[in-house]
Design goal:
mainly alpha; 4 helices; about 50% helix; globular
Amino acid sequence: MKRRDLRVAVGRKKVPFSAGQIVDGLQAAGAMTDDALRVARDVEQALRDAGQRTVPLERLREMVAERVREQLGDGIADHWLAQTAPFVPIVLERLSGE
């Protein structure tokens, strides 16, 4: 499977998997960069080993949280799950009159 073939299902859309987005989210949750990279690579490899081409976003979040709990502890895993998920676009709207 090519590197770009792995997708994340976000609602009806499928977006390319990005270990970098997972790393960013884990760093925001309190993980050190090297730890975040290791978790992101472990999850990506597990998906590829299973032959998955598309993973639902919630399953991806669960997989990351499981590995974080095992390797880094509950605190970072809980922060990871509490924040806005990677791969979800954040839309900002400007209020009229501002």
